[in-house]
From TrEMBL:
Keywords: Acyltransferase, Cell membrane, Lipoprotein, Membrane, Transferase, Transmembrane, Transmembrane helix. Pathway: Protein modification; lipoprotein biosynthesis (N-acyl transfer). The lineage of its organism: Bacteria, Pseudomonadati, Pseudomonadota, Alphaproteobacteria, Rhodobacterales. Its main location: membrane. NCBIfam families: lnt. The keyword Acyltransferase applies. This is Apolipoprotein N-acyltransferase.
Length: 525
């Protein structure tokens, strides 16, 4: 009995509906994974989201796996970076129509990294490398490799790394001091997909898998708790004031409001006892401060006992017939004299410059006279009377292993940022989470000054000692937290990832195989 044309068409429609439903479910699974990250940090759902994704990938052919990975990634990134759309409404008349296409396009582009991880997993799994505990190890390895590539390809965008699910859990974030965020993400993903693997695979229902999982989890917690217990350092005798002016982004560069902005920051900075260091956020001063002697003197007269004043500020330099612009943090002494500064080297595409400007007909979201030029890289500032300071401007703090000058290690990090572009969305909370992980990785306190929030003081173990929430106006007065000794990750960077992965593969796959072979040999004898 043959099918009619109508029946075939009906079957095709049903198949299409089922395929779309399947794709929608995977997108939702990816979006739900965002709930494992700050500001939610619902760690309990990680086995369901990552484990469900792992279960779906099992047995798929490489191309199908890649499509599935891209679909999962689309939900993951759209759910995690949707707040970027808010920046397009700062100048709504020009850019609001681009908000949704921009978020969708960026999410679709970033989704190629989970697609690559899924493709690699499917290819290697077909060669029987996924038997036993090798399955979750292989998945975690491919996922971590894709995350590392996402943080380095082109300019890199390591936002919402999987390890950030552990930021709010004090002992569990501490191992980043030894293995970094990528290494911690590898162990996290392995652990959360292992239950699904043990349930779904009869070949893996062995005590060894449960023992290894419990051993890794206990080691993470134990090592982290030990780092928290060992050594309680006293704060330094250096006092710091962080000013959060809470100036809306759409008002920051309006000429008629310039005086109000400067006065607000001066009033906040000069109230009460004046500290040793005063910190203002990224581009807090709406102009070229090094060219305005009157304002420099005015600021420093209000801060008579301050040793160092540091502020985010644009800068410009004439080169031949052209002028080049930098996004900088500049330092000044009590007499208003420049002590040097730092120029941001990781610039935001389409925010601070337009990539391939000669060929791409796009405008920048920010108003200025020209594109910013990147600085030479991380730099430690030696300023009189205070400990050495490293500077990371805005989203530079999201790059593991790239926030500190390796030649001269600072004693603290000043993260000047302006998250006013993103309103009260979850973006600033995610940004803060990245800063906390950098503090743990480097063993250095991070002092964060944000225009509209979240300003914060973070110690070298990633604890938030003080914070000013979004859309609050005020100051944080704190003693400068102490630095810890240089961490293993600070010494070797992402090279710590390789021995970690190899050790896990040996314990999870190599050692059981050796034991099995020895047992078979003994029986043979």
């Amino acid at each position: 009995m043959t099918e009619t044309a109508g029946e075939k068409a009906a079957f095709r429609k049903v198949a299409l509906v089922l395929s779309l439903a399947h794709a929608a479910a995977i997108v939702c699974l990816g979006a739900l994974t965002v709930l494992t990250l700050p500001p939610f940090s619902y760690l309990i759902i990680a086995p369901a989201t990552y484990g469900g994704f792992f279960f779906i990938l099992r047995g798929l052919r490489p191309f199908r796996a890649a499509v599935t990975g891209w679909t999962f990634g689309l939900g993951y990134f759209a759910g995690g970076i949707f707040w970027i759309a808010e920046s397009f409404f700062v100048d709504a008349d020009r850019f609001s129509l681009l908000a949704i296409p921009a978020v969708a396009g960026l999410s679709a582009l970033l989704a190629f990294f989970p697609a690559l991880a899924s493709f690699a997993f499917a290819v290697l799994a077909r060669s029987r490398l996924s038997e036993g505990l090798a399955g979750p190890l292989l998945f975690a390895t491919c996922w971590t490799a894709a995350e590392w590539l996402r943080g380095h390809v082109l300019t890199g965008f390591p936002w919402n790394l999987s390890s950030y699910a552990l930021v709010e859990y004090e002992p569990l974030r501490q191992p980043a001091a030894w293995i970094g965020s990528y290494g911690l993400g590898f162990l996290f993903v392995f652990l959360v997909v292992l239950p699904t693997h043990l349930i779904a695979s009869r070949n893996s229902r062995r005590p060894w898998g449960l023992v290894l999982a419990l051993g890794v989890a206990a080691s993470l917690w134990g090592a982290g708790q030990t780092r928290l217990w060992l050594g309680i350092e006293e704060p330094t005798n250096i006092t710091v004031r962080i000013a959060q002016g809470n100036v809306p982004q759409q008002d920051k560069w309006r000429p008629e409001l310039r005086e109000e902005t400067v006065s607000r920051y001066i009033d906040l900075s000069s109230q009460g006892d004046v500290p040793d260091i005063v910190l203002w956020p990224e581009t807090a001063y709406p102009g070229f401060l090094d060219e305005v002697e009157e304002d420099r003197q005015r600021i420093m007269r209000a801060l008579p006992q301050t040793r160092i004043f540091m502020t985010g500020v644009p800068d410009r330099v004439g080169v031949d017939a052209d002028t080049i612009y930098f996004n900088t943090v500049q330092a000044y002494d009590p007499k208003g004299r420049s002590l040097g500064g730092y120029a941001k080297h990781k610039l935001v595409p389409f925010g601070e410059y337009v990539p391939l400007r000669k060929w791409l007909p796009f405008e920048r979201l920010t108003e200025s006279l020209g594109d910013f030029t990147p600085g030479p890289g991380p730099r430690t500032l030696a300023l009189p009377g205070i400990p050495f300071v490293g500077v990371a401007i805005c989203y530079e703090i999201i790059f593991p292993g790239h926030v500190v000058d390796d030649a001269i290690r600072p004693d603290w990090i000043f993260n000047a940022t302006n998250d006013a572009w993103f309103g009260t969305s979850i973006g600033p909370e995610q940004h803060l989470a990245a800063a906390r992980m950098r503090a743990v990785e480097e063993g250095l306190p991070v002092l964060r000054a944000a225009n509209t929030g979240i300003s914060a003081v973070i110690d070298a173990r990633g604890r938030v000692l003080a914070r000013l929430d979004l859309e609050h106006t005020g100051v944080l007065d704190v003693p400068l937290p102490p630095a810890l000794p240089r961490t293993l990750y600070a010494r070797f960077g992402d090279w710590t990832l390789l021995p970690l992965v190899l050790t896990c593969w040996f314990l999870g796959v190599g050692l059981p195989a050796i034991a099995k072979k020895l047992l078979a040999t003994r029986k043979g004898v």
